[in-house]
Structures are given as structure tokens and as C-alpha cells.
């Protein structure tokens, strides 16, 4: 019963992102990505039980992991400025997609695609490190927590860190153990979505501040 409650909370919490898109005026690039992410993964989770079990492990899980990775990687790629980091993201992403095709075609499917999830997690952790290194070396003089991407990174640390070992060991657990502990994944996922919502709001706040600064920099002309 408790597991179902956390599952429903996690699923419907994704709608917070498109809801914010409707009430917040900001239409910046990252908010479009976060809104699309919220809609896509709400639908994937909402219709999960309507998908035949034979398709879950063969197609659904690899698709879920790949699309999730691409959303996360694109957020870092678009927010990083260092060319070698952006190039690394492109290379690793290409290799990951190739691996996923090989995984679908040649590797025996289990309850959970633990290997792709493990690789996805390690790569996203690496991109988070890229972001923090770039932020430390930045000469912009901003506090890191004023950057919306910081909160995206924090959300992903909670999500991937909180569910990492459960995802890696998921295929080795019995059905009872899997059902008993899987709700921890829902909690980590929900925390991540809340941090994404905070990042969404911060993007809009940054836009308002930028507009105000531009108005302040316009010289006052006395026409009298």
C-alpha cells in the first residue's frame, strides 16, 4: 500500500513541470526541455501497467533509460561553456546510444536493465563533475546556487545516488525484496523532480532580473 502511494506521488509529480510552464511567464530553452521531460515521463509511468510484460524488459526499459539519459545530458550540454566538456558529452552520448542498440539486440534481458542504468548514472555523475569544475573556475563572480543548473545537478545527485545500488542490484533481488525496497527509488525520483521544479522557477527569476538590469542600464535622457 505504501509502495503504491509513493508510486502515484512520483508519477503525478512530473506534472508539476508542465504546470509551472503554464503559470510562469518564462519560455527559455531549459524550461521547454524540463516541461517536455515532465510530460514524457508522466506518460511513460502512467501507462506502464498497460504495456505487455513481454515488451517491458525488451523495449520499454531500454527506451526509458535512453530517453532519460538524453534529457539529462542535453541539459548539461546546453549549460556548459567549456568546449572540451561539450565535446566529451557528445562522444559519450554517441557511445551510450550505440551500446544501447547492442544491449537491445544481443544481451539477455532481465527484470531491470541494470547495466545501462549503471552506465547512465556514471556518465551523468561525470557531467555533474564537469559542471562543478567549470563553476569553480568561472570568472563571472556568481554564487553557484544562483545558477539553475546547480539545482538540476543537486536533484540528479539525489536521484542517481539514492537509487544507484538498488538499480544495480535490482535484477538479483527476489520479487518480494524488489517490491519491498523499490519505493526508495520513487522517493529519490520525486526529490529530483522537486529540484527540477526549483530550477524551472529560478530560470524565470533569472530572466526577470536580466530584464531589470537591462532597464537600469538604459541612460536617462532629459528631453525638456
Structure keywords:
224 residues, 0% strand, Rhopdopsin 7-helix transmembrane proteins, single chain, mainly alpha, disordered C terminus
Describe the structure.
By secondary structure, the protein is mainly α. The protein has a single domain, classed as Rhopdopsin 7-helix transmembrane proteins. It is built from nine helices and no strands.
In short:
The protein is built from nine helices and no strands. It has helices spanning 2-13, 16-23, 29-46, 53-79, 83-106, 114-136, 148-169, 175-181, 183-217.
Structural class based on helices, strands and sheet pairing? mainly alpha
If you average the pLDDT, what whole number results?
86
How are helices and strands ordered from N to C?
HHHHHHHHH
Runs in which pLDDT lies below 50 for 5 or more consecutive residues are: 211-224
Q: Work out the number of β strands.
A: 0
**Range of strand content:** under 5%
Tell me, what is the CATH class?
Mainly Alpha
> What share of the residues lie within helices?
over 70%
The CATH architecture: Up-down Bundle
List the helices and strands and how they pair.
Elements: H1 2-13, H2 16-23, H3 29-46, H4 53-79, H5 83-106, H6 114-136, H7 148-169, H8 175-181, H9 183-217
